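User: Could you go from structure to sequence for me? I need the amino acid at each position, not a summary. Structure tokens:
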């Protein structure tokens, strides 16, 4: 059994939504802004147009009995239509900007110390390093999530040594900075994400491609996955890196 929640919308809200939908010509955008189902907005607009057309039809029958319009009236009508078209374009742009601002306020994802701790815990489990006797070293920049007390307590509890590079020295953490640059150039800068879910899906697909298909000169033109398997077998000879 599925329970459906019915909403009672005020006449004032309906009139406002219908007006915005007619001005912009985009029911989906208006629905998102007011957090109303798109089909509901379309039904309101359809009913409004039906009522308006009925009224116009009646007015037209009355007008047919009067004298026709002159050239000046036709010119005024053309100007009025052009003004309405411009209002529609401007209104749609203003609405898009307003929606983007709302989305940034409501749905902007942030990275916290707990997110970092969860990711590291998952990595330790996958690599079977959770009970490692030798202390592992994690090197990061000075982001707020890394300098927080919560992250420091996590590292202490899991026998992890935390190194923070000096401010404005990304070269001190070159491997991850190089990856961040690749991620930006080959993935993030090529898309305009509409939602967090869409971004997560596309970035995940890129990570799979990076690990399984993209070769790297620094690991003898192998993919990271091939390099990892070779290192486990002891057959991988890494290039010397000059520091």
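Assistant: Here is the amino acid at each position, in order:
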């Amino acid at each position: 059994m599925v329970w459906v929640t019915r909403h009672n919308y005020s006449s004032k809200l309906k009139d406002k939504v219908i007006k915005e939908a007619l001005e912009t010509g985009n029911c989906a955008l208006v629905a998102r802004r007011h957090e109303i189902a798109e089909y509901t907005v379309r039904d309101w607009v359809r009913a409004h147009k039906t009522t308006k057309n009925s009224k116009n039809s009646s007015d037209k029958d009355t007008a047919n009995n009067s004298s026709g319009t002159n050239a000046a009236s036709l010119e005024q009508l053309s100007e009025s239509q052009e003004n309405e078209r411009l209002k529609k374009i401007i209104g749609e742009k203003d609405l898009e900007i307003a929606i983007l601002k709302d989305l940034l306020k409501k749905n902007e994802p942030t990275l916290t110390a707990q997110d970092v701790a969860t990711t590291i815990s998952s990595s330790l489990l996958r690599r079977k390093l959770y009970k490692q006797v030798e202390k592992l070293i994690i090197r990061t920049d000075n982001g707020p999530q890394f300098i927080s007390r919560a992250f420091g307590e996590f590292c202490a509890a899991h026998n992890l040594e935390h190194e923070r590079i000096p401010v404005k020295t990304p070269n001190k953490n070159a491997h991850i900075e190089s990856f961040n640059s690749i991620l930006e150039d080959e993935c993030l800068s090529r898309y305009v994400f509409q939602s967090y879910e869409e971004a997560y899906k596309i970035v995940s697909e890129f990570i799979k491609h990076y690990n399984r298909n993209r070769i790297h000169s620094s690991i003898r033109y192998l993919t990271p996955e091939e390099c990892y398997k070779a290192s486990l077998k002891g057959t991988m000879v890494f290039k010397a890196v000059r520091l």
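One structural detail worth keeping in mind: Residues 1-6 have pLDDT under 50 and may be disordered.
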